[in-house]
Amino acid sequence: MSTINTSNRRLARLSVCIIVFSFLTTQQSYDDAMLMTISTLFFTFCYAIVRQTRLFHPKPGVLSPAEETEWRSRIIGILHAIIITIGSLHCFSEWRNMTHEESWSSANRVTSFWATIFGGFLQYDICWIIYHLDEYDDISALFHHILFLGATHYNVNNCYFARPYAWLSLAELSTPFLHLRWFFAVAGRKDEPMYFFNSYMFASTFLLTRVVGYTWGLWDVWWNGSEIWMKLPAGAYIVMASVHAGYGLNLFWGVKVLKALMRALGTKKED
Questions:
Q1: C-alpha neighbours within 13 Å on the C-beta side of residue 198
Q2: Is 168 helix (H, G, I), strand (E, B) or coil?
Q3: pLDDT per residue over 136-175, tens digit each?
Q4: How many domains does the structure of the chain reveal?
């Protein structure tokens, strides 16, 4: 009976997510709605394939069922991070084709394309988190996703903020190292050199993109873009509030990352 109740709660939560995301997606133009739907289904399909084939999994029995579920989710997270990091470089390259005002307040198909794919992934991942809330209790990740999904839907619909999207999406550079580090940790392989390599790479790329790069980005938002974006409709202010809230999350995580890095470096020096 307990198992049935748990399954019913999961399906109910998932159904609500699907209804909400379907409504939000239909508010986009036809092309953007189709691309975002395809993106959501693509990452869902990849998860299903990894789950069915156990691709890139450790041997059976190494992980608990909950850890295996999260393992699969993190594989898809790595795939998404690689795609979006490449997309962010494409967006940076588009800066030379835009005037300063256009980079803040005009349509740009390159940015819209990558932002739509990003939004599709967030929809998939929020559905995954909501469905697995019983064993995956990470409210900060859920809060992060909801913030940026709302901002993404608004920006794709209105084609604003091409310039900030480039540096915001570059923050995904740290994600593969975070997940690879977790893989080694839960598999009981913390003593291996690759665990330390991924730990250092995660800390370095996180601090570089999500703290230093994000700080520069917000400076750019206020120093170079405020005269333009502050004249946009009220929704732009909500987007900017979300971006600043995301910065607060990154600083919260960044303190932990920096402390862990300093401990690791201190341990290494003692050895």
A1: 18
A2: helix
A3: 878 888 999 999 999 999 989 888 899 999 999 999 999 9
A4: 1
Radius of gyration of the chain (CA): 20
| Residue 125 dihedral angles phi and psi, to the nearest 5° | -70, -35
Chain segment 164-190, per-residue pLDDT in tens: 999 999 999 999 999 999 999 999 999
Which ranges of the chain does DSSP label H, i.e. alpha helix? 2-26, 30-53, 65-94, 102-105, 109-131, 139-158, 162-170, 175-186, 193-206, 214-223, 226-229, 235-270
The maximal CA–CA distance of the chain, rounded, in angstroms, is 62
The Cα-based distances of 234 to 27, 128, 144 in angstroms read: 18, 31, 21
Return d(Cα 125, Cα 241) in angstroms, integer: 22
Q: CA torsion sign, 74 to 79 to 82 to 85?
A: negative
What does the block give as tokens for 23? 């409504």
Amino acid identity, position 268: K
* Encoded tokens for 93: 């390259």
**Structural domain that includes position 228:** 2-270
- Classify residue 67 as exposed, middle or buried by CB count within 10 Å of its CB (0-12, 13-18, 19+): middle
CB 125 within 8 A of CB 145: yes
Residue 246, number of CB atoms within 10 A of its CB: 19
Q: Which amino acid is at 194?
A: M
Which residue type is seen at 238?
I
Phi/psi of residue 114, nearest 5 degrees? -70, -35
